Amino acid sequence: MTSSNASFQTEAAASQLAALLGSRATTALIHREHHSHGESYHEARLPDIVCYPRSTQETSEILKISARYGVPVVPFGAGTSMEGQVVPLSGGIVLDMREMNRILRVSTADMDADVEAGVTRKQLCEAIKNTGLTFFIDPGADATIGGMASTRASGTTAVRYGTMRENVLGLTAVLADGRIIKTGTRARKSAAGYDLTHLLVGSEGTLAVITEVTLRLHALPEAVAASVCAFPSVEDAVNTAIEAIQLNLNMARMEFVDDSQVRAINRYSRTDLAEAPMLFFEFHGMDEEAVTRQAGMLRQIADEHGGTDFRWSRSTTEREVLWEARHNAYYASLALRPGGKGLTTDICVPISTLAACITWAKREGESLPFPTTIVGHVGEGNFHVLCILNSDDRGEMEAAAAFSERLVALALSVGGTCTGEHGVGIGKVRYMQAEHGEALEVMSAIKAALDPDNRLNPGKMLPR
Hints:
This protein has helices spanning 3-21, 29-34, 56-69, 121-127, 145-150, 158-161, 164-167, 196-200, 234-246, 259-269, 288-304, 316-327, 329-334, 354-365, 394-413, 432-436, 439-450, and strands at 25-26, 49-51, 73-76, 93-96, 103-107, 112-116, 133-134, 168-174, 180-184, 209-216, 218-219, 223-230, 251-257, 278-285, 308-313, 341-344, 347-348, 372-377, 382-389. Helices cover 37% and strands 21% of the residues.
């Protein structure tokens, strides 16, 4: 299609979208700019039109218009993605799902809920706080549930409660041609047919637009306690975490931060943590005795690895301060270099190789021409090196890209993956062939079957 034809098709689509949605279909520059980027360094691209659907049926009608005029569609939630998943590389329509923000059903007996895609994590937790249940998947940002499902998000609690993959029971989704499908059931298991639910979870809007999600909920623990502990080296901290996993200590969270990250946290959150490699832990249990016993066993392991400055608290306020500081680690790192952009690596490796991989990353990071910090969900072998860049400096961008490639190569060499939780988007698409080999052709065949015109979030997940 020539550029003039594409422009005509886009204008025709915009006219029909305005007729369908009124002011909720807009070409205003301020809306287009807001929807041109996510949280990271990836270059922004303006969409042609932004739509705010309020129902699955409206989403279906938008997709039908997209199909009629061959206009790309990019789903958009809170815009907190780290690998450019929401950047509209080919312009077209951005679907902002945040007006689809109703909690449709909560069942305390079945411990599940139906929510629309634009419901945020905090909104859901607030709505169910008096039920004795909660939703534990916590990627740090107040992301939308639809976005979390689309990127297969996880977070600090995944070591015990799993990722979105384990906590999504079913979906309502709109296909590229506007058909509406429902996947999965409220039953806790099924052997009926292909697992379309978990095909769409993590597909980053490239196969369908998720509009509703059925979620698994969890009981609030009777007893909760948190602790932090400093270590003389990265190896000591990570080996403590590995032994805790091997001894099956029932931790809900287990997070690693390096000394550079602790310094950034202290400066940003006004904490007074020891500026050394550190582990953050949280224990959930049925009673105080069980939690205290688990923490005591952890402290013994930490002592054997030179752990110091061990702090322990059951206070809700103190725990919230601690985890708020951890969740703000990304912004604390960016504050080390005002105006800097974040390039966040995201590998996940087998637990047995974790200490060596983090040590390598720490050593390499110290030789780079910009600040770096390291955080990790070490209970799963997932860690991030955050490079704080001047995105206008070509030398820095090239150095960061080369470092990221070396880190991914290391992960793949030990049986790991290029992304543990941030997803593929733009930033990791070039590693898909190396990681998946022939299986990438199968993924491409699925994409072609469900989206033959490549209109759903084109340029993401699969190489062009």
